[in-house]
Amino acid sequence: MKKKRHIFSLLLLTLGFTSMFAQSDRQFIRSGNKLFRAQNYAKAEAEYRKAIAQNAQNSQALYNLGCALMMQQKDSAAIVQYENAGKIETSKSRKAKVYHNIGVICQTHQMYGEAIEAYKESLRNNPQDNETRYNLALCKRLQKQQKKDNEQKKKDDKKGKDKEKKDNQQQKQKDNQQKQQNKPKDRMSKENAEQLLNAAMQQEKATQQRMKKAEQQPRSRKLKRNW
Fold it and tell me: What range does the record give for the signal peptide (predicted)?
């Protein structure tokens, strides 16, 4: 009895694996789409990955995987899958959607330069897409404003640094003045003492030179006056 039960379980397991391997990439995509519509994006992602494992050249699976990742806010990973889909997608309408979504992600992260290029590529494949055209115009305007804001920020930062430097210098001068004022007036600084000592030495040297010169000159005789 145990032997039959063991064989039955093994047959079920084998049939299960056979059924899974027989499932095509399209079936995984349909399963993923059903989960995606139910907003179960993590499980939808898993199904799309299974489809890609079956057929790495299935651009629809790559695109849908990008959408599932995007809905989970895995934006960097989503862009990678969209780019993979864009490289092999042959349908212009689907290719336009790929680059439109790349543009949306970049725009969300204020990467306006990258968003503009993505929207341009989308319009090359579908020039009638008014939503993409609107997003492109909006990104161009936002990019200009971003550049102005960045330039103004640089100016403000420089002005702030210059003011801080000036304030520090003024504070340093005040501190030095305060230190000088706090010093005892009758206390001579080292520099002043050295200056006075040098002056005294110079004066003494000059005196010695005058005395030496006077000694070298002939002395005049004093005559006694006759009375």
Answer: 1-24
CA angle in degrees (0–180, nearest 5) for 184-189-195: 145
DSSP character string of 152-190: HHHHHHHHHHHHHHHHHHHHHHHHHHHHHHHS-TTSPPH
Domain encompassing residue 68? 27-89
How many domains is the chain built from?
Answer: 2
Residue 188 scores a pLDDT above 60: no
78 and 111 assigned to the same domain: no
pLDDT in tens, 73-85: 999 999 999 999 9
| Contact call for residues 103 and 120 (beta carbons, < 8 A) | no
Whether residue 107 lies inside any domain: the answer is: yes
pLDDT at 35: 96
Residue 112 lies in a domain: yes
